Amino acid sequence: MPLYDYRCTECSEVTEVVAFMHSKPETVQCESCSAVAKFCFLPPKKKLKEKEPLKIKVPRLTIHKFYCDDCNTTWDEVVERDIDAPPQEGRSCVNCGAHAKHQPSCKIDRWSEQFPYYDRGLGVMLKNKQHRKDICKERGLTPVDGDWDIESEYSKWDSRVEKETAEYEDYCDRLDNHPGFKTFRKKRDLGLI
């Protein structure tokens, strides 16, 4: 059933009434002051949905790289999320005991590779690492088997989201204001769409 708005002739408060189209009253009693309220047309209130934050499943065990400035030692350490301190706090150096910094990285190790093996992503039997690189080059792919910059990927994604949001807002603005959509707005406001 449609929702109708009625403006009070005394206090100008708006009262909302749900009624069938064929039985819509011309006047109702004001909820605030009990005076007569007449039917008035108000455009629908536009509500934009808030985007939910991206939920990322965090693994329990992760491998992190640490670096000590004092003795120039670099090592990898397995960190258990629920038990160990966060890697961003750093660790004591395994060599000299000084405070070592966390080195953020996104490394994909292919340590379990034994050639020949069937690569499901490429869909071919690979003979060695060079063969894998050659197949990727033929297909215009970039193998991701070393360190890569995750921040640039995030910034690309953020810029794409901003562009799509701007396009959506422009679309909504055109629907609400462009003269070409005038009949659409009339039908929407009358509840026909």
Description:
This protein has 193 residues and is α+β, with helices and mostly antiparallel strands. Among the domains are: 3-44; 61-103. It has three helices and ten strands; from the N terminus they run ββββββββββααα. The protein has helices at residues 129-139, 150-177, 182-189; strands at residues 3-8, 14-18, 27-29, 36-40, 61-68, 73-80, 91-92, 99-103, 117-119, 124-126. The protein has a four-stranded antiparallel sheet with strand order 2-1-4-3, with no helix packed on it. The radius of gyration is 32 Å and the shape is elongated. The two termini are 13 Å apart. The mean pLDDT is 81.
Number of DSSP helical runs: 3
Terminus-to-terminus distance: 13 Å
Largest sheet: 4 strands, antiparallel
Shape type: elongated
Protein structure class: alpha+beta
Mean pLDDT figure: 81
Topology pattern, helix = H, strand = E: EEEEEEEEEEHHH
Strand order of the largest sheet: 2-1-4-3
| Number of strand elements | 10
The whole-angstrom Rg is: 32 Å
Structural topology:
Blueprint: E1 3-8, E2 14-18, E3 27-29, E4 36-40, E5 61-68, E6 73-80, E7 91-92, E8 99-103, E9 117-119, E10 124-126, H1 129-139, H2 150-177, H3 182-189
